[in-house]
Write a structure and sequence with these properties.
The complex is a heterodimer of chains A (381) and B (93).
Chain A (H helix, E strand, L loop, with lengths): L9 H6 L1 H4 L5 H10 L1 E5 L5 H11 L3 E5 L24 H12 L4 E5 L8 H5 L4 E4 L4 H14 L2 E8 L2 E7 L12 H4 L21 H18 L8 E6 L4 E6 L14 H4 L13 E2 L1 H10 L3 E5 L3 H6 L5 E2 L17 E5 L4 H14 L4 E4 L2 H8 L8
Parallel strand pairs in A: 1-2, 1-4, 2-3, 4-5, 9-13, 10-11, 10-12, 12-13
Antiparallel strand pairs in A: 5-6, 6-7, 7-8
Chain B lengths: L1 E4 L13 E3 L6 H11 L4 H4 L10 E5 L2 E2 L14 E7 L7
Classes of the chains: A alpha/beta (381), B alpha+beta (93).
């Protein structure tokens, strides 16, 4: 990063004095931070520590991409936000918080989803991208956009107790770019092979750890100080406190020439193309319960979710449903539910295809809808 | 003989075991096959229908990607540590 014409005011010199005191970082490193433009995609679990530390460190221009609003369930790990922020725009709230932390920086809010149609236009104004997104289509989009636009992609990802960090598309001394995400994972796993958000979960402090490492890599890339994590993948398992740093090699078959349809690439079928299933509302389900009618209730969530709350259904997790055809009645109404109605709809499609059931009904909105509209003593999770 | 480190997303198929010590197997492929024979539910996550390791999984021996070694034929010894690295989406996932 260049720092032509950049100067630091006396107030900034005082603020950044602990950076300036590091011999190899010095005033020149701080000027490079001030001259830098960093785009942070996602201001959630990873984005929170990344943004806080980049703002505190004095990155001169930070862009934030996020279309989401703050939810109660975010506060367990998204330390940018408070109870007062619930329901508000994450990106706008983040900007306010970060400028209160450091008024000597500039922040641009992109209160929009990051899509193939706007990706290249957004990132063209930045030097470095920090990927703090939460789904495979956007991961591949961020990667491909960075490769096409020649930007460094500082990557981090988390799941339960495990985190991954790497620096992709980093220019080496000979100008050749280092490995990118597609060199590591040429293809995404098909939907259903990896746990979805409801089955997943993450220990709240993990994004704090991994996002801080991500911020550290951004600062190294921008300042030119240290050896960025290019060509390497750092892994951290908080549960066993083990760390590994593995090699990432370039794949000669990786070819990125344009942005593509990433939902399709990741095997995600648009909702309108899914086969419709029969639905039953939580109100009709309650009436059915009260009528004393004979029906079977199947719960396709995980065992630990059943412990959070349940409707006394028979627990058959989605990944076991295909082998459970003989446990499901054909001679009476069968109602299948999950947390929100998505997994149970998938279960019904699978059962109908495998065993030609015609008596399966999806509980619309799942147990969360039941908890909100019928029995408010049940937790919504 | 080798130690295989199971990543978190796949532990629900290994009765929550985080490692597996192979009993036989002279290559990475043989070690992985022994693992999937032991935990049948893992098979479709690691192997395609032709029993090849899936492209969204990386396998490492020590710190080295097996694609930089002898791929699935990479030999393993008693002190070899094999890592299975899946793509994880992050954030809430």
């Amino acid at each position: 990063m260049h720092n032509n014409g950049i100067s630091l005011s006396p107030e900034e010199m005082a603020r950044y004095s602990r950076h300036i005191a590091i011999p190899e970082f010095n005033i020149e490193g701080q000027k490079k931070l001030k001259a830098a433009k960093v785009l942070v995609i996602g201001s959630g679990g990873l984005g929170s520590p990344v943004l806080l530390y980049l703002a505190a460190a004095g990155i001169g221009h930070i862009g934030i991409v996020d279309f989401d609003v703050v939810d109660d369930s975010n506060l367990q790990r998204q330390v940018l936000f408070t109870v007062d922020d619930v329901g508000k725009s994450k990106a706008e709230t983040a900007k306010k918080r970060l400028l209160a932390l450091n008024p000597y920086i500039n922040i641009t809010v992109h209160n929009t989803a990051f899509t193939k149609d706007n990706a290249l236009d957004i990132i063209k104004d930045y030097d470095v991208v920090a990927d703090g997104t939460d789904n495979f289509p956007t991961r591949y989009l961020v990667n491909d956009a960075c490769v096409l636009a020649g930007k460094v992609n500082v990557y981090a990802s988390i799941f339960r107790f495990e985190g991954q960090v790497s620096v992709f598309n980093y220019p080496g001394e000979n100008g050749e770019r280092g490995p990118n995400y597609r060199d590591l994972f040429p293809e995404p796993p098909p939907p259903g092979l990896v746990p979805n958000c409801a089955e997943g979960g993450v220990i709240g402090v993990l994004p704090g750890i991994i996002g801080s490492l991500q911020a550290s890599e951004v600062i190294k890339v921008v300042s030119g100080v240290g050896e960025p994590l290019s060509g390497r993948l750092f892994l951290f398992d908080a549960s066993s406190f083990t760390t590994r740093t593995l090699q990432v090699i370039k794949n000669p078959e990786t070819k990125i020439t344009e942005l593509i349809n990433y939902e399709q690439f990741c095997g995600i079928v648009p909702a309108e193309n899914l086969e419709a299933v029969k639905e039953i509302s939580v109100q009709d389900f309650k009436a059915l319960q009260d009528s004393g009618a004979d029906f079977q209730l199947i719960d396709v969530r995980e065992a630990y979710e059943y412990e959070i709350s349940n409707l006394n259904g028979e627990l058959i997790p989605l990944n076991r449903i295909a082998e459970a055809g003989n446990k499901i009645a054909k001679d009476k109404q069968v109602i299948i539910h999950c947390r929100t109605g998505k997994r149970s709809a998938d279960a019904i499609r699978e059962l109908q295809q495998l065993y030609q059931f015609e008596n399966l009904y999806n509980l619309t909105g799942g147990i969360n809808a039941f908890a909100k509209e019928i029995d408010t003593s049940l937790p919504v999770y | 003989m080798a130690k295989i480190i199971i990543p978190t997303p796949l532990r629900k198929f290994t009765e929550n075991e985080s490692t597996y010590q192979t009993k036989n197997g002279a290559t990475v492929k043989e070690a992985i096959l022994e693992l999937t024979d032991t935990y049948a539910g893992l098979s479709k996550h690691l192997l395609d229908t032709n029993q090849n390791i899936r492209s969204f999984i990386r396998i490492y021996v020590g710190e080295a990607d097996i694609n930089s070694l002898e791929k699935e034929a990479t030999p393993v010894k008693s002190d070899t540590v094999i890592s299975i690295i899946p793509a994880i989406a992050g954030g809430i996932a």
